[in-house]
Write a structure and sequence with these properties.
single chain; 396 residues; alpha+beta; Neuraminidase; 4-stranded antiparallel sheet; 35% strand; signal
Length: 396
């Protein structure tokens, strides 16, 4: 009996142990499964975090690129606007030329000349010349016959620049504009102050809102007229005393190539003579020949434009005096400057009879040459020196 009870207890004990072992194996399997699931979730979360970081970094790079492009587009907005306006002007000019050629061309090879039409055209040309003479005051009848002497007033040392008096004002002030790109005018009460060794300390400084380009600016009746830097063909009218911009204009066809081959920084050269404000430039359509435009200095409107036979090749400067353009040429390495192309807008000068005029007593080159109609002298900038040339004139 006792043995039987022991056997029953042994069976129960073994059964209990085996059940516990089975439960432990099931718990271990469950824990292993849960562990694997957590590892899988952690890997997915890590990948998700990495993807988010990659997306954030990519978005930052894209934002930087977009902002950079927007800044560039904003900077070029004014330039693009100017180029579009210039292109529209050229398209309108081309359309007028096409309309003209279309009306002037007949499909027949033999064209009968209409004498009445020819007479009408000649009459219209004569009337146009009369209007030009009235506009330009044909009483201005002198022409350049020689360059008598020179005076080197000062040597600032700057390679490029422009200096001048205001021929439209009754004062002795001298204006100095250093460099081919700058925005500061130096104003001196007289030429003696300008000639002093510490001249910059005695100058009144006038700062422009926009810098100029080239050396072709001019001062007339208290206003500075200049080609705005980084624009194709924008001319600004600036009041020197009030220090503000009063007007501006776009000069059709100008600003795409240098006005003079030997002065490449000057795309538009502004000039003053007895008749007022002129613009000198070159165009690809004229094969580099110089074009001159009469501008109303009050309204900043174009009054008339002339294509000249004067080439911009080997030219270093030019000026207008008494309705006549004088173009100055030189060697690329520098030499004796000479005037060898003259163009009178009213055909009052037989340019073929004019001898070549040489600038006296110096070798080198000019950055600018401006005519002062009040004193009938040339204010020039040559190799860092500020020079005055006296002129000899005669009747046309």
């Amino acid at each position: 009996m006792l043995v039987l009870q022991l056997r029953v207890l042994l069976v129960l004990f073994l059964t209990s142990i085996m059940g516990a072992a089975q439960y432990m194996m099931q718990d271990a399997a469950l824990m292993n499964y849960i562990d694997r699931r957590f590892l899988s979730l952690e890997e997915r979360l890590e990948k998700c975090n990495q993807d988010i970081l990659d997306y954030v970094e990519g978005f930052r790079d894209l934002s930087k690129m977009v902002l950079s492009r927007l800044a560039e587009l904003n900077n070029y907005d004014a330039k693009v606007k100017s180029e579009v306006e210039n292109l529209l002007t050229r398209i309108e000019q081309a359309q007028r030329d096409i309309d003209y050629f279309r009306s002037a061309t007949d499909s027949n090879t033999c064209i009968e000349v209409d004498e009445d039409l020819v007479k009408q055209q000649l009459f219209e040309e004569a009337e146009e010349k009369k209007k030009l003479k009235l506009m330009l005051n044909a009483s201005c009848d002198h022409m350049l016959a020689g360059i008598k002497s020179l005076k080197i007033v000062k040597k600032t040392g700057h390679k490029h620049g422009s200096w001048m008096k205001d021929p439209g004002k009754k004062h002795t002030k001298i204006y100095l504009l250093n460099g081919s790109v700058n925005n500061v005018i130096l104003e001196f009460p007289d030429i003696m102050t300008f000639m002093e060794s510490n001249y910059t300390l005695k100058a009144r400084r006038v700062t422009l809102p926009f810098p100029w380009e080239g050396t072709g600016h001019i001062i007339y009746q208290g206003f500075l007229f200049y080609h705005r830097y980084s624009s194709i063909n924008e001319i600004i009218k600036f009041n020197i005393q009030k220090r503000n911009i009063t007007d501006q204009m776009l000069l059709p066809g100008a600003g795409r190539i240098p006005a003079y081959q030997l002065s490449p920084s000057t795309k538009i050269d502004l000039a003053i003579d007895e008749q007022g404000l002129w613009a000198i430039h070159a165009e690809p359509e004229t094969e580099g020949n110089i074009v001159i435009t009469k501008i109303n200095h009050v309204t900043m409107a174009v009054e008339h434009t002339w294509d000249t036979p004067c080439s911009s090749k080997d030219a270093e400067a030019a000026f207008v005096a008494c309705n006549t353009l004088y173009v100055v040429y030189n060697m690329p390495a520098g030499g004796t400057s000479r005037i060898q192309c003259v163009y009178d807008v009213l055909d009052a000068v037989n340019t073929y009879d004019i001898p070549v005029l040489h600038f006296p007593k110096r070798q080198g080159s000019h950055s600018t040459i401006h005519y002062n109609p009040k004193e009938m002298q040339l204010f020039a900038w040559g190799d860092g020196s500020q020079i005055i040339y006296k002129l000899h004139t005669k009747q046309k």
